[in-house]
Backbone:
């Protein structure tokens, strides 16, 4: 059970002094019933209870990456902690790992087969079918070979991997699932009595199409392209607005003004949308007002 609290407040971006994987092992020694306080030392460095390594091994691990407030990073064989969000007095910091540390740990990554259509426990182990409400506990479960999570066991294994990990030139890159396949699976898994739910954040849509477009904000999938400049989009409405801007500039062989519906009476510029025209006219007014001063 975590006994880590923030004492006086820590600003976002605060970092610790560098430490090693051996420091993590040393920090596992001692009394687990004592509180560790995250704070800044006299030099403005993040520390706690005998050093940053002590703070690291005692902090509770975040259930998902967006929930983290502390991040353990690895560079050139050394480790450091960084505050990813401001911590107020008496806040409990939650720890997760930066990309370089995740690669050194060889932390398992999740794929579509690890997500199931279960509203309360959508993440399921591919090996033993154990279910979890959040993604990171499943990653830790796989990391430990389906053994129950125990902080000391985890940090001993983590320290061993961090100590022996190769440099960046030898790190492997995890394969990325096909985004179209991921979108199709996530859209199907999101079906429920309440509507169509996002498996990433739980947001519910009344229509399958709305969920499909929303999923692209998580996956980054942008299959739609502008016929004029080939810029990629995930949302058709954003693509249509973009194409109208090309038409307003007279691009794409449609002549000056192209498909524009509104024309500025001051300078003759053609614009695709009424609100664009209103904004443009206000800009003229602001220029004239500033010139009168």
Residues:
């Amino acid at each position: 059970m975590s006994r880590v609290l923030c004492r006086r407040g820590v600003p976002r971006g605060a970092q610790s002094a560098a430490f090693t994987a051996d420091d993590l092992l040393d920090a596992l020694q001692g009394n687990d019933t004592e509180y560790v306080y995250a704070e800044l030392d006299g030099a403005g460095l993040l520390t706690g209870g005998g050093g940053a390594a002590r703070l690291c091994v005692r902090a509770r691990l975040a259930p998902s990456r967006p929930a983290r407030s502390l991040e353990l990073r690895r560079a050139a064989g050394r480790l450091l902690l960084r505050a990813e969000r401001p911590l107020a007095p008496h806040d409990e910091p939650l720890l997760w790992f930066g990309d370089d540390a995740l690669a050194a740990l060889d932390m398992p990554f999740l794929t579509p087969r690890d997500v199931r259509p279960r509203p309360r426990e959508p993440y399921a182990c591919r090996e033993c079918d154990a279910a979890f409400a959040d993604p990171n506990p499943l990653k830790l479960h796989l990391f430990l070979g389906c053994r129950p999570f125990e902080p000391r066991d985890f940090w001993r294994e983590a320290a061993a991997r961090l100590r022996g990990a190769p440099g960046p030139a030898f790190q492997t890159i995890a394969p990325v699932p096909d985004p179209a396949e991921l979108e199709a699976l996530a859209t199907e898994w999101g079906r429920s009595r309440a509507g169509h739910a996002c498996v990433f954040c739980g947001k519910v849509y009344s229509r399958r199409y709305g969920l499909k477009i929303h999923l692209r904000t998580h996956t980054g999938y942008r299959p739609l392209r502008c016929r004029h400049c080939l810029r990629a989009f995930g949302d058709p409405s954003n693509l249509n607005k973009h194409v109208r801007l090309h038409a307003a500039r007279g691009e794409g062989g449609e002549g000056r003004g192209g498909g524009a519906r509104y024309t500025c009476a001051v300078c003759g510029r053609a614009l695709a949308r009424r609100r664009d025209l209103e904004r443009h006219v206000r800009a003229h007014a602001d220029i004239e007002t500033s010139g009168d001063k």
User: Anything to note?
Assistant: Confidence is low (pLDDT under 50) at residues 167-176, 252-258. The CA atoms of residues 21 and 113 lie 33 Å apart. The first helix runs from residue 21 to 27. The two ends are 66 Å apart (CA to CA).
